[in-house]
Design goal:
The chain is an alpha+beta fold. The protein folds into three domains: 73 residues, Uridine Diphospho-n-acetylenolpyruvylglucosamine Reductase, domain 2 (2-Layer Sandwich); 122 residues, 2-Layer Sandwich (Uridine Diphospho-n-acetylenolpyruvylglucosamine Reductase, domain 3); 208 residues, Vanillyl-alcohol Oxidase, Chain A, domain 3 (3-Layer(aba) Sandwich). Strand 8 and strand 9 form a beta hairpin. The longest helix is centred in the last third of the chain and has 15 residues. The two termini are 31 Å apart. 54% of the residues are buried. Bound molecules: flavin-adenine dinucleotide. Flavin-adenine dinucleotide binds next to strand 3, helix 4 and strand 10. Belongs to the oxygen-dependent FAD-linked oxidoreductase family.
């Protein structure tokens, strides 16, 4: 490893011979098996600066490991340097200012736990092991987004290590072009070692949970949910997934292992008001199981942890919809069911509310007017013999839904689908602006192991 005189790396470096190397290079998606030349474990911005400088001095490709949940596995790179941020995981809450400073390698589980101690929250990842870093830089979609906006809408400032190892601040007043690009442009512009996020009063108890319906009710459940969500109050966060009922106690015996529909609810208003506000959802049915009740917000945030274990094989894609008419609902159910794998989750998330009121030009991320966002999350046990059939299922479903797609996509929900798809996420004008900002901040495209935006 070459060290520059200006930047000396004082952290731990793992090589293929080191104990812990295999665990450290593993990511959420078990299909990804990459072997970095070294993993540089950072615990400060200065160490990140030194790690970037050493990778550049050695002419090696570089990847950034936040929480390792990116389905492309871009956190690790074959034969290169993995800048590992997992040691930068502080969460410091300023309850009076209603802000939190969070390390670039922290998880949403840690963030939610620390902020909820003060009855504060921002929307966050729907699975608690997801990294704050990648999720926020992709814009950050979560259950509270219709109430409080995307995570990026609540970004106050970021501490960024640049491609030439400078440590800078990005905010509305400092480096505003960089600040704009960080809010949806992904990991293209630098390594964020600290995010400062705006918080909102919420919890610790909220009304939330899940309604579970048998698969044969899928079309009716989706139509009812769609109609309700199109005019729902901002406080209602919700998504519907075609899934397979787990062999859990709360599922009636005959439904276990069968195709079913899960409606997840997170209500950001007064929990006592929730049953009346949510009546059109709660009274539809009857469901096979109703787990909706007042519960800790952190429990809502962990509802989906059990069905999302690390190490499974994953193939994902997504699409924003212009509308979700009955024909689209029918196509979704016809091509979605029966899932090839019981782990697969075919999710529709409702837009609207606070996210739709932010000016489209305010952040790099756009797509604020789409009423529904599809996340086709194919997941199956780590058995290569099952890969092809599962990938084909997701691709066929995605193709069937194209007639209702806006042509744009939420990049955090897809795998590696090429540059054209990245461009389509932003549209030509924003993409051109992002490429210009990239030329300023990373002209050599050092940060390219991501949903890449090449410099202009
Ligand atoms: C089970 C599961 C649930 C999910 N749920 C949601 C959800 O509810 N909402 C949502 O929006 N997305 C969700 N995602 C997608 C998630 O937002 C993306 O996968 C995101 O990239 C994960 O961030 P990470 O830091 O964990 O990933 P990593 O794989 O570590 O990072 C992905 C890329 O992000 C960049 N990056 C990460 N951290 C930094 C940093 N600090 N500075 C600079 N670049 C960085 C790097 O380019 C890196 O290659 C989910 C993913 C999984 C696996």
């Amino acid at each position: 490893m070459t060290e520059t005189t200006e930047h000396r790396f004082s952290g731990e470096t793992l090589t293929p011979e080191s104990a812990g190397y295999d665990a450290a290079r593993s990511v959420f998606n078990g299909l990804v098996d990459r072997r970095p030349q070294r993993i540089m474990r950072c615990s400060s911005a200065e160490q990140v600066a030194a790690a970037i400088a050493s990778a550049r001095a050695d002419g090696l490709p570089l990847s950034v490991y936040g929480g390792g949940h990116g389905v492309t596995g871009s956190a690790v790179v074959d034969g290169g340097v993995c800048v590992d941020l997992r040691g930068i995981d502080h969460v410091v809450v300023d309850a009076d200012a209603r802000t939190a400073r969070v390390g670039g390698g922290a998880t949403w589980g840690a963030f939610d736990a620390a902020t909820q101690e003060h009855g504060l929250a921002v929307t966050g990842g729907r699975v608690s092991t997801t990294g704050v870093g990648g999720l926020t830089l992709g814009s950050g979609s979560g259950w509270l987004e219709r109430a409080f906006g995307f995570v990026c809408d609540n970004l106050v400032s970021a501490r960024v290590v640049t491609t030439d190892s400078r440590i800078v601040t990005a905010s509305e007043s400092e480096n505003p072009d960089l600040f704009w690009a960080l809010r949806g442009g992904g990991g293209n512009f630098g390594v964020v070692t600290e995010f400062t996020l705006r918080l909102h009063p919420l919890g610790p108890i909220v009304f939330g949970g899940m309604l579970l319906y048998p698969g044969f009710m899928a079309v009716d459940v989706l139509r009812n949910w769609r109609d309700y969500m199109l005019t729902a109050p901002d406080a209602v966060g919700s998504g519907v997934a075609l899934i397979t009922a787990p062999p859990a106690e709360f599922v009636p015996e005959p439904a276990r292992g069968q195709p079913c529909v899960g409606v997840v609810i997170a209500y950001a208003g007064d929990p006592d008001e929730a049953p009346a506000v949510l009546a059109p959802l709660l009274e539809f049915g009857p469901p096979a199981a109703n787990l909706c009740q007042p519960m800790p917000y952190v429990a809502v945030q962990q509802l989906l942890d059990p069905p999302n274990p690390k190490g499974m094989h994953n193939y994902w894609t997504g699409d924003f919809l212009t509308e979700f008419p009955d024909e689209a609902v029918e196509a979704w159910v016809e091509h979605g069911f029966p899932p090839v794998s019981p782990l697969t989750q075919l999710i529709v998330v409702a837009g609207g509310g606070a996210i739709a009121r932010v000016d489209d030009d305010a952040t790099a991320f756009g797509n604020r007017q789409s009423p529904f966002n599809l996340h086709m999350l194919g997941m199956w046990p780590p058995d290569p013999a099952q890969d092809e059939q599962n990938i084909s299922h997701i691709r066929a479903l995605s193709a069937a839904m194209k007639p209702w797609s806006t042509g744009s996509v939420y990049l955090n929900f897809i795998g590696d689908e090429g540059l054209t798809r990245v461009e389509s996420a932003y549209g030509p004008e924003k993409y051109a602006r992002l490429r210009g900002i990239k030329r300023t901040w990373d002209p050599d495209n050092v940060f390219r192991h991501n949903q890449n935006i090449p410099p202009a």
